[in-house]
Amino acid sequence: MTVDRNAPVGVFDSGVGGLTVAREIMRNLPSEKIIYFGDTARLPYGSKSPETILRYSRQIIRFLREQPVKAIVIACNTASAFALDTVRGETDIPVIGVIEAGALVAAQKTRTKRIGVIGTEGTVSSRIHERFLKSIDPSLSIFGKACPLFVPLVEEGWLKDPVTYEVASRYLADLKEQKIDTLILGCTHYPLLRSVIREVMGDSVELVNPAYETALELAALLEKKGLTSSEEVPEGFPYRFFVSDLAEKFTDFANSILPYDVTMTRKIDIENY
């Protein structure tokens, strides 16, 4: 199969969190088109079973392949944990997740070898970050903490609300006691709470944003595969957005965080895929 190097990159997430990854791709790979899908009808993913996450991921990938796209970024830690290995073997275009790139940076940056990971219940219980980090350096100590309320707080737009500070303080107390020096924001929603997390954890803790690292990994992958766009500036609509529900709410949120004016988001029935 011949892949068009000027085709878009597909990016998907359970909701708006993956926009943090899309934002970094826009900033670091400005010549690439993006097709984004947010599964807003079925979020959050973090409390779903691995089998359900895999089914959702397959449906979304079928939709993205119809567009068509030249590569896919699973911009969701939960789906990266439970679906990446399987779907990567089922498709003939490159597919990457958001876990490995951030973990590599955390392993490089830690000074005390004490790393924290925050994420959804599914991501933390999978211990995928711990396994990958231990494969890099077995002497690392990894401390996971599920923060399930962070996703609905972000989706609600309560990025700096007093309630969000209170929730963050309770969740992160255990990690502060463990004296970690590096914290992986193990859900793509969480960089939107970076200022709150920074205030709670203090300046001595390095926060790792996997969204930025994933954009750099994508750039390297496209170059390696000969799929880097040859168009200097994408023509027409370089970024297209699709959701499974609440298109207007998604559009408003996207416009609050993206360096690009999102004029329309299309709602589709993902169950048809």
The helix/strand series, from N terminus to C terminus, equals: EHEHEHHEHEHHEHHEHEHEHE
- CATH architecture of the largest domain, please? 3-Layer(aba) Sandwich
* CATH fold type of the largest domain: Rossmann fold
Structural class: alpha/beta
**Overall strand count:** 10
Sheet with the most strands, sense and barrel status: 6 strands, parallel
Summed over residues and divided by their number, the pLDDT gives a mean of 94
Domain module tally: 2
Strand order of the largest sheet: 4-3-1-2-9-10
Tell me roughly what share of residues is in helical segments: 40-55%
Q: Secondary-structure blueprint of this entry?
A:
Elements (H helix, E strand, L loop, with lengths): L8 E5 L5 H10 L5 E5 L11 H16 L5 E4 L2 H6 L1 H5 L6 E2 L3 H10 L4 E6 L1 H6 L1 H9 L4 E6 L3 H6 L6 H16 L4 E4 L8 H8 L4 E3 L1 H15 L14 E5 L3 H11 L7 E3 L6
Parallel strand pairs: 1-2, 1-3, 2-9, 3-4, 5-6, 5-7, 7-8, 9-10
Helix pairs in contact: 1-11, 5-7, 5-11, 9-10
Description:
It is a single chain. It contains twelve helices and ten strands. The chain has 273 residues and is of the alpha/beta class. The protein has two domains: 9-97 and 212-272, Rossmann fold (3-Layer(aba) Sandwich), CATH 3.40.50; 100-210, 3-Layer(aba) Sandwich (Rossmann fold), CATH 3.40.50. The strands form two sheets. The chain has a six-stranded parallel β-sheet, with helices on both faces. It has a four-stranded parallel β-sheet with strand order 6-5-7-8, with helices on both faces. The chain starts with 8 loop residues before the first strand and ends in a 6-residue tail after the last strand. The mean pLDDT is 94.
